[in-house]
Amino acid sequence: MNEQQIQHKIIKYLESNGYYVVKIIAANKSGVPDVIAAKDGKVIFIEVKTLIGKLSPLQKYNIKKIQKCGNRAIIVHSAVELYSQLLTEPKQRLIFPQQTIKTKAKGIKALRNDV
Asked: How open is the CA angle 12-62-67, to the nearest 5 degrees?
């Protein structure tokens, strides 16, 4: 799967969970993360890479700078990895209204099938 396909799945997932999502196509700076997502007063900068993709030195620098500003910047290789990272961050917990743990497990399985 290429980066664009992974980005599409990530954007679709975030939007279905109530995030306001912006895909960065061109920016005034190079090395800016691919996706910015906001929900509940929190902003997440997301750099998407394939399994063999590597961050450039400029991307590493920008991610550290974003984090030093108090924001969350993450690198993901799939929608499943994004889901996992969002759940492990207590300040950025996803809300699943009226869903059971069994339903959440089905959601993970569905995401894995998409990857």
From this structure: 80
Residue 108 has pLDDT above 90, yes or no: no
The percentage of residues in the chain with a pLDDT greater than 70, rounded to a whole number, is 77
**Res 92: pLDDT:** 41
With H, G, I as helix, E, B as strand and everything else as coil, classify residue 76: strand
At the topology level, CATH places domain 3-114 in Trna Endonuclease; Chain: A, domain 1 (3.40.1350)
Sheet-wide strand order for 35-39: 20-23, 35-39, 42-48, 72-76
DSSP 57: H
Q: Where are the domains of the chain?
A: 3-114
Residue 27 predicted with pLDDT over 90: no
